[in-house]
Amino acid sequence: MHPDHAPTAPMTEMSAELWNSAASVLETNWAGDHMVPSRRLYPHQWSWDTAFIAVGLAYVNPTRAWRDLRSLFEAQWPDGRVPHIVFDPAMAEADYFPGPAFWGVPSYGSRPAHGSTGIVQPPLHAVAAWEVYRRAAAHGAASAQQARAELEWLYPRLVAQQDYLTGQRDLGGGGLASIVHPWESGLDNSPAWDAALANVPADLSLLSVYRRRDLAVSHAAHRPTDTDYARYVGLVISYRAGDYSDTGLLERHAFAVECPSFNAILGAAELALAQIAGVLGLGGKADTHRERAQHITSAIVARLWNPETGMFHARDVRTGRLTAARCVSGLVPLMLPDLPAERVAGVLDAMRSERFGTPVPSYDRTAADFDTMRYWRGPVWINANWLLRRGLMVHGLRDEAEDLRAAMVRLVHRNGHFEYFHPETGEGLGAPSFSWTAALALDLLADRSVPAYAKAA
């Protein structure tokens, strides 16, 4: 670890303890050329975990932060997609389900067969790369020069990722990317997908053939149900049957949804790419990225806003209907600086209401099916709140951003670096020693600055 990468804010005894414990988690979970989310439950490399982790890892080991991003993008598909899991060949098939043989991905580029999954996750990586660069640039010319070289390597790959998502994945034709599996959202069992998943057969016999491993190492009450899991497995089989092609997908695949948080991150990635292009001397491309971010923002407003609830909702591309569920995903577009003022006000009203509050849970607290322990159906997640904090800063709401930052820091300090947390008691749930919780704790302790593309306060 690198002690010279200390937090910029004054260290209290509490923050020093949290800093050291977070750094220890990241040291434990480093796997040679990538970070695992947790040793026990997630033994491979996950896509959007890598992005969140890089943001915090940059404070204590920037070399590893860059290596983690490179390791992920070395597994990028020729069509530009970045797989949601890159499998560690040192791990056995039985160590995780669904494992590499189940996905059956053929070899591509320099990747061996069965090296990754065939689906994606939110494209937060450009934001992460920009944040890692910002940290490096603050530590002298040599560090900045190395970081610029890393950006040069990553930039065309990040652009290819965006091109894939805004092109082949615009299944609804309205300028937004569609997810074709709930796992692609990063919010696996969110109530946002319930309506669309209702049309996916729940063949529980699949779980006799393909046995869940997660329940052997975590509490069943904390995890998605067997019904959900059977649908997840069935959707993989469906997508795999078409060789993971997106051509004609609506005719042969039962799930396609436009997710507000996925697309907000897609727009934020364009803004980060504009910053990266500027550093690389690609001014014209920077303008193009900003224009694309504006188009994505406009499409989110046009397609996903529900005036009756005053927030954003997921759209089932197959039916054209917005889900009724009020989920944290519907608040994440706050991170877009070009979001119209009346939409910002609506999201803020929802966040401040009894339905959510601080820290923000993953689902409406007043909903009849709100579940305090089951994954994305109620618990508090640090990564989702970190995104919302960025949104508050983008729109100049620094006092509220600071309140949210302090609430997250207290939650992790008191309860540990868990995957997620009970929304009422703060009890740690899911996997312990979780990498993105630790990494984002470092960022929350160290960085209180406004993103470079934010609106002026």
Automatic annotation (TrEMBL):
<keyword id="KW-0326">Glycosidase</keyword>
<dbReference type="InterPro" id="IPR012341">
    <property type="entry name" value="6hp_glycosidase-like_sf"/>
</dbReference>
<comment type="similarity">
    <text>Belongs to the glycosyl hydrolase 63 family.</text>
</comment>
<dbReference type="InterPro" id="IPR008928">
    <property type="entry name" value="6-hairpin_glycosidase_sf"/>
</dbReference>
<dbReference type="InterPro" id="IPR054491">
    <property type="entry name" value="MGH1-like_GH"/>
</dbReference>
<dbReference type="Pfam" id="PF22422">
    <property type="entry name" value="MGH1-like_GH"/>
</dbReference>
<dbReference type="InterPro" id="IPR004888">
    <property type="entry name" value="Glycoside_hydrolase_63"/>
</dbReference>
<protein>
    <recommendedName>
        <fullName>Mannosylglycerate hydrolase MGH1-like glycoside hydrolase domain-containing protein</fullName>
    </recommendedName>
</protein>
<keyword id="KW-0378">Hydrolase</keyword>
<feature type="domain" description="Mannosylglycerate hydrolase MGH1-like glycoside hydrolase">
    <location>
        <begin position="42"/>
        <end position="437"/>
    </location>
</feature>
